[in-house]
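Same chain as my last thread, 298 residues:
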Amino acid sequence: MAPSGYVMNLQPFSVNDGDGIRTTVFLAGCPLHCAWCANPEGCNQTRKVGWHIRKCIGCGECAKVCPQGIGIDLNAEREKCIACGKCVEVCPQKARVLMVQKMDADEVLKQVQTHRLFYSYSGGGITFSGGEACLQPEFLNYLTEQIYDMGYSMDIETCGVFDFEAVRPSLSRMDLIFMDLKHMDSAAHKRWTGAGNERILENMAKLAELPAEVVVRIPCIGGVNADEDNIRRSAAFVHRTLPKARMELLPYHEFGKIKYEALGIPYEHPEFLRPSKEEMEHLRGIVREEGVEVADFR
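reply #2:
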């Protein structure tokens, strides 16, 4: 019997998560709590319903079917929500959405295969992301084993906090592994993400044992980690431990802000700054100075 797992979204036609046209499978659950997280719905493994107030026309269809008696304003009574999805099914404007659901692995595979022609003609495939995809090792292993046998390319995006041996079989099937390196200073890493970076650095070094190409990603956030010292130290570590790896520097964005609204969670971080194009190019130059090739999947 196929295992089931918590899935945030299956996003077809992705072009920034590896080569070619891909389907990105977002798996829920994450051991970190980054203050800038763009996917807050994926912080844990529970079903979640979101409410996009901007789409809502106040028709009340959701309230009519809610077994918990929740009204139109879901965020005002969110503690009652059991995420049954009945409101999602009847909303005419798709203002109610299931942001995390439990899915059978074979259903995920069925959906992934609907876009197989795009993978074939573009050199694309499937990318696993999150949350943190490696937190569901049995689910991930089943999916990657089946997809590997289908002959599709696979990539994975990870924060680096996971049991390496538990997911080694899945990682060994990947063509490309994106791993985040949010800060070289462990104390600063813990301040902004809730955990130190020791396990991340340890797992990153272990990637050298695998056949996959590696791209180390840094989300560059002004006021957090987008400074010359941190980028230089990060590049030096990558050059020393993974000499064949590339690095991709991604400027901070607030694309996930609408998800916070849908979950009724405030997102106010004026201290986070987006580096300018000139600043980003300067930081990429530092990476090159340290002997690491720069990647760009934007």
